[in-house]
Amino acid sequence: MTPEERVLGGQSWDDFCDQLKRAGQQILRPEAPNDELTRAEGWRYLSRLTRIALEMHVEGSDRDFPTFYLPSHETAKIGADNPDNLYLRAEINGEHRYRIRGNRSTVHYLSWGSQKGGYEKDGSNAQTGFIDTGTLKVDVDGNFEVIASVDAPRDRGQTNWLALEAESNTIIVRQTFLDRTAERPSEMKIERIQEAGAQPNALSAQLINQGLASAAGFVEGTSRLFADWAEGFQKTHNELIMADQAVCQSVGGDPNILYYYAYFKLQADEALVIHIPRIPECENWNIQLTNYWMESLDYRYFDIHVNKHTAKMNDDGSVDITITSKGADLPNWLNTAGHDEGIVCFRWIKTSEALLPESQLVKI
Known about the structure:
Blueprint lengths: L2 H7 L1 H13 L12 H24 L25 E7 L6 E6 L5 E10 L5 E9 L10 E7 L10 E4 L6 E7 L10 E6 L12 H29 L7 E2 L2 H6 L6 E9 L4 E7 L7 E7 L14 E3 L11 E6 L8 E3 L5 E9 L8 E6 L1
Parallel strand pairs: 5-6, 14-15
Antiparallel strand pairs: 1-7, 2-5, 2-8, 3-4, 3-7, 9-10, 10-16, 11-14, 11-17, 12-13, 12-16
């Protein structure tokens, strides 16, 4: 059946709805907690993934005329999204050349990564190029220009270059704040470098057929991927361990970050204490809580994370973070927001040492 026949006859829409329905099986997996809160969050999670998927594969699918959109934010979250981050994403074609223009502003850390693959395809987002503010060239007013292309610019020494491969299909931007109340985000736009007069592609049966299929595939693929991760984390309770960094990078992690995870499972009279003996030289560090589906807990209303700037240190240079569901009159208290179990994510960003924080389960 051709794309035209599928769109005219409604098969494209039927298949889209059928695959969304099938994605619901990830919420009903036998190892997943079946309490009311976790199950309700699971269905909301699928609705959020659907919103992201439609933005990604239907609204933002014209790779000749890409735009940045928010792939993860306060009410749509994926894979232990970082509450300190503002994420931007654009869909591209690695065979084209692109220009990103903007102003550095005052956000603490900025990075651009090009990727290939997709959760709707093979569950990967492999890195094909990366730059960050450590090497970013800006003018006296903080303005910058980044060229994204397969071939390096001739004046590479004077140009910010984000490498692409022919298979690259995404550019992801991470803006990481130490203090959102004091720092201003960078503003930027992306455009394809091309001949003047080119026009955006008109919507066609082929585009909407592919877009709906990719969107449904993204929802099912993403929900399966991180449900698999959560199942793996369940094997060890209340102890931070270093994640497999190669796996983290294969799904689109920042190459400057070392990731650690723990599955917390607490009784009402228990707390998990994370002790960092010392803070090595690093760009930043942070720790956060997520629900079972690896969505950050609602940081708009609950204290669910701290970082290098917001954490209170002990006199000896160590840091203690207390994780519990009950109000604690302690520095660096992380609120589980009604969750008895979920996931802890810890990050070192550009650290000089892969220091493993210590974990201890204690009675309140």
